[in-house]
Amino acid sequence: MRYAYYPGCSLTRSAEPYDLSAKAIAAPLGLSLEEVDDWNCCGATEYISINKNAAYALVGRNLALAAQQGVSKDLVAPCSACYLNLRKVDHYMGVYPEIRERTNAALAAGNLHYEPGAMQVRHLLDVVVEDVGFENLKERVVRPLDGLRVAPYYGCLIVRPQWNGGRGASPEQSGGGGVDPEYPTHLDRLLRTLGAEVVDFPLKTHCCGGHMTQISADTAYELIRRLLHNASEYEADLIVTACPMCQLNLDAYQSQVNRHFGTSFHLPVLYFTQMIGLAMGIAPAELGIGREVTPAREVLGRIGAAAPTAPEAAPRRKRDDKALPMPRRREEA
Amino acid sequence: MHGPSSDADFLAEVIATTPGAETLITCLQCGTCGGSCPSGPDMDHTPRHLFAMINAGLRDEVLRSNTPWYCVACYYCMARCPKDIPITDLMYSLKRMAVREKLYDDRDAPDWSTSFIGMVDSYGRSFEFGLATRYHLTHSPLKKVGVGPMALEMFSKDRMALRPHRIKGMNQLRAILDTAKAQEAV
């Protein structure tokens, strides 16, 4: 099946392993992800905090380009924030005539137009679960993730909010794949299909802190700590996520959080696409594994899928004892 | 600055700028929003409290509140609100109104948003390295020293680009954004 693919800014670098692993599993699973040509940023949570109409128009350009390029009606975003913004603008243009008119008036300045509903915005996790399906996925597993205890971390934006009907909406109406906004289970089931042992993870849809690491670090660190603590309490070996922001906050800030609270968490955080790739027998390096800040090497060694070691550093110049004392890097323990 | 405004003006203004916010007048003051909020303890007013203040027309107090700036946009409150109030969108509206009227005490959050937008307006994409350096060097850089090793890790794992990517259709995007921003000024 063909899909218009909107990677989003994170996947071009800080979450490149997500992009690599999504592309590595796509072809074997029968998914053709075709990137929207010349897409722009979705605005994250920042644009709408300053300019509302421009924030809608910014997203509108992506929707219009995707519709114009005509690859598919399905527009797939692997990033939860991009997914939310694309879905939100499509939905708001559909239900609020004023937003539809204003956004299209702005798009007209760039010779573009978007008819709400022209694209169906979907998250990559939803595509794997709904279009590939658990049965198909199971047939592809050649290296089951036996013995790995994983905490399925959904984050916020793939399960909330549920537009098109609000609370109690039917699966078709919810727009969130019909999943429970507080206690979804589709990622659990996906990971079990791969052979992993899925731990209960009560905070599975709690916030990772989002952009608060930048503007109020103490607030973010506490939210990150809660998640790491909860996953540890349930003796998870690693956390599996479907969002670049969640991955960044839990992975890259983990040592900051440890320093801040005097804790000693060591929980690698990988993308669900990397887990699928591993189970399909794809080489870890092709899945971007090894680029996480909190290394997954030791944990993955258990399933015979250790990440490649970093290239050996060039031998350091021998220290001349007679030279003047100079500051030295502390020896690694 | 704005002139004296009646209670109804402020409530109506907040509702008018927020899609689907007509439900705000039906707020039950049940407190489910504040109870669901992950950063609630850092807020000087819970969302529930803030909505009562909007209803009471306390314009300056509401726009000076740190509450919207601590909203992490997790949509927990929205998923649980029994009256379907679009709470996250209301927080965005209050941020925009506070920025427009320069009614905020701590400029870190508004500056972060503005810096982010600057990158998007220049390149069409976010540029993490440029954004982080520009913002952190001008906002208490001494407090950020601890983040240094993390940034180095990101470089060493090839997860931080040193140069931005500029989209091809930058002129097109600018024309679109300029038109949209002009609508807002009306």
Description of the structure:
The complex is a heterodimer of chains A (333) and B (186). Chain A has a 4-stranded parallel beta sheet. Chain A has 2 domains: 122 residues, Glutathione S-transferase Yfyf (Class Pi), Chain A, domain 2; 169 residues, Rossmann fold, CATH 3.40.50.11810. With 333 residues, chain A is of the alpha/beta class. In chain A, helix 3 crosses helix 4 and helix 4 packs across helix 5. About 4% of the residues of chain A have low confidence. Chain A contains 14 helices and 8 strands. In chain A, strand 1, helix 1 and strand 2 form a beta-alpha-beta unit. Helices cover 42% and strands 9% of the residues of chain A. Chain B has 2 domains: 94 residues, Orthogonal Bundle (Fumarate Reductase Iron-sulfur Protein, Chain B, domain 2), CATH 1.10.1060.10; 78 residues, no CATH class. Chain B is built from 11 helices and no strands. The radius of gyration of chain B is 19 Å and the shape is globular. Chains A and B meet through helix 2, helix 3, helix 5, helix 9 and helix 12 of A and helix 6, helix 7, helix 8, helix 9 and helix 10 of B.
Which key phrases capture this entry?
heterodimer; A: alpha/beta; Glutathione S-transferase Yfyf (Class Pi), Chain A, domain 2; Rossmann fold; 2 domains; 4-stranded parallel sheet; 14 helices; 42% helix; 9% strand; B: 186 residues; Fumarate Reductase Iron-sulfur Protein, Chain B, domain 2
